User: What shape does this take?
Amino acid sequence: MTNPSLLILPGDGIGPEVMTEVRKIIDWFGTKRGLAFDVSEDLVGGCAYDAHGTPLHDDTMARALEVDAVLLGAVGGPKYDDLDFSVKPERGLLRLRKEMDLFSNLRPAQCFDALADFSSLKKDVVAGLDIMIVRELTSGVYFGEPRGIFKEGNERVGINTQRYTESEIARVARSAFELAMRRGKKLCSMEKANVMESGILWREVVTEVGRDYPEVELSHMYADAGAMQLTRWPKQFDVIVTDNLFGDLLSDLAAMLTGSLGMLPSASLGAPGANGRPKALYEPVHGSAPDIAGQGKANPIACILSFAMALRYSFDQGDEAARVEAAVERVLADGLRTADLMGPEGGSPVSTTQMGDAIVAALDASL
Ligand code: IPM
Ligand code: MG
Assistant: This one.
């Protein structure tokens, strides 16, 4: 039997540093758990632009469509700010999402006990928080046509289009209901049906899909009220499903509530391919953090937990995913902190490498 294949795209900024630590975890599974992966590595984002003049080479795109899962670090940096829009690092990521048809983006917002004090909210509001935002990722205003900057009379007009078909709404809704079935059986759908036709259709279609999931308690909220409720009492939510743009905003908000922005993973899933596995890309929620790149300060946990999500959602290894998550909890409980997790009172942070090594040691101890 051939090993499952993984394409690793470290990207820019702190991406390569955190990915080095993920490689240790991947290797650990090969040597200690008999779970070996065929790993290949390639460029995405600014580094791909530097090498090829495009943020995603066609060969890399083709490879991403072949492998069982893609693991991405982060893209972008100030060096690329002035590039033409069409070759900006982010375009590489957006092309991957679109061409792999990764319509369902899972963004957990989970508060690690050891970090509850880091939240900007009161501890009792966030302690134990564990919610999942399902963001539609391949449509909506990110991709809708017409788009562009046009001349209208003697001034310019910038246009983007919010557009959703019923089938696009239905498939992401279904993935959210499936997830809710495996969690707390509560789903809240967020849109702006009070001002947007696409929101009215969204609400209707989500409600229709919900008829197949009578056990799931479905509610609807306007996205602005949803943002308010997320800050007021986030524990009222279990799974939230929303469109591409609202999901972008609400997932950053939810991530920050946990005080753990450097800790949160994500999974972007498509339809199952010939191998029965969903097309899948895993990446940390955080960005490329160019200000600390190359200094060994970055927190590798979000990227390591993204690999854990790959174990769970692509490779049917939920127990092994839980093993990685427990190892992360362990090192945090032991007091290990990278620089981003230092409180105002300070302390001595561990490096990216030290954090990765400690997690490997905790995995060893779990055997
Ligand atoms: C995200 C990011 C991306 C997005 C950017 C980098 C294109 O903010 O993954 O949330 O807007 O989707
Ligand atoms: Mg975002």
In short: The chain has two domains: 1-110+264-367, 130-257. Residues 184 and 325 are 19 Å apart (CA to CA). Residues 15-32 form the longest helix (18 residues). The pocket of magnesium ion (ligand 2) is lined by residues 248, 252 (CB under 6 Å).
